[in-house]
Write a structure and sequence with these properties.
Order of helices and strands: EEEHEHHEHEHEHEHEEEEEH
Number of domains: 1
CATH superfamily: Class I glutamine amidotransferase (GATase) domain
Helix content: 25-40%
Oligomer: single chain
Strand content: 25-35%
Strand order of the largest sheet: 4-1-5-6-13-12-11-8-9
Distance between the termini: 39 Å
Number of strands: 13
CATH topology: Rossmann fold
Radius of gyration: 18 Å
Shape: globular
CATH architecture: 3-Layer(aba) Sandwich
Largest sheet: 9 strands, mixed
Length: 247
């Protein structure tokens, strides 16, 4: 296994198991399994107020940042009033992930946002969210059954990071969300759309680095390449350039 360390931001949730009911930091095991299957090591990152003020020391311990899915982002983080369907927010998680994202991008660290993580990437760069897509598209197709992923297709901009990471310009995906991108964050471009309703499904920062957000869940598909592409970006960054030999 590679020594490449992928930090996976953990959710905060109230859960019950056995006789216990506790507030926990957690992530679906599919994230860690996908990272491990790609040859890297997975590290869960719980919200940490000290890292909000100074994210550098934490980021020095990892090689890439994976912003995982989870509860709705607090609308206060993008200066909006909450929609009635915006629920289950954890502002401490938002503060932590926004601070890590901004610092990681500033340092050139590879960043991948998945579902909520794509939304965090957008908000970190000054963007806003559509808090309840069914109000605009008229259907719950992207979250049709609680606790179950929906299947649909996405189309990706040819030559984009999203297409290169996915290994295709059109592919079937699994998703479960009711929010999406409204105003784009600074520097971001849209490179993916759902079929057939054109909901924004991928955003990225143009340039040589790896800063990508996807609204679907590649960790739930063992054939998906997106998480492996994040790890490949780390490996490529770590390979020293060959010195030119002069004669």
């Amino acid at each position: 296994m590679s020594s490449c360390a992928i930090g996976i931001c953990s959710a905060v949730e109230r859960v019950r198991w056995g006789v216990w009911e506790e507030t926990v930091t957690m992530a679906p095991r599919s994230y860690a399994l996908a990272v491990q299957a790609a040859g890297a090591q997975a590290f869960l990152l719980p919200p940490d107020e000290s890292a909000v003020e100074s994210p550098g020391p934490l980021l020095e311990r990892i090689d890439a940042l994976l912003l995982a899915g989870g509860a709705d982002v607090d609308p206060a983080s993008y200066h909006a009033e909450p929609h009635p369907e915006t629920k289950g927010t954890w502002p401490e998680r938002d503060r932590f992930e926004l601070a890590l994202t901004r610092a990681a991008l500033a340092s050139g660290m590879p960043v991948l946002g998945i579902c909520r993580g794509m939304q965090i990437l957008n908000v970190a760069l000054g963007g806003a969210l559509d808090q309840h897509l069914p109000d605009r598209i008229g259907t719950e197709v992207h979250r049709h059954t609680p606790g179950a992923f929906g299947d649909h297709e996405v189309r990706l901009e040819p030559g984009s990071l999203a297409a290169r990471a996915s290994g295709a310009e059109r592919l079937p995906v699994k998703s479960h969300h009711h929010q999406g991108v409204a105003g784009l964050g600074g520097g971001l471009i849209v490179t993916g759309w759902s079929v057939p309703d054109d909901v924004v499904e991928a955003i990225e920062l143009p340039g040589p680095g790896f800063a990508l957000g996807v609204l679907w869940h590649p960790e739930e598909d063992t054939k998906a390449r997106v998480i492996a592409a994040l790890i490949e970006a780390v490996v490529e960054d770590s390979v020293p350039e060959t010195e030119e030999v002069t004669r």
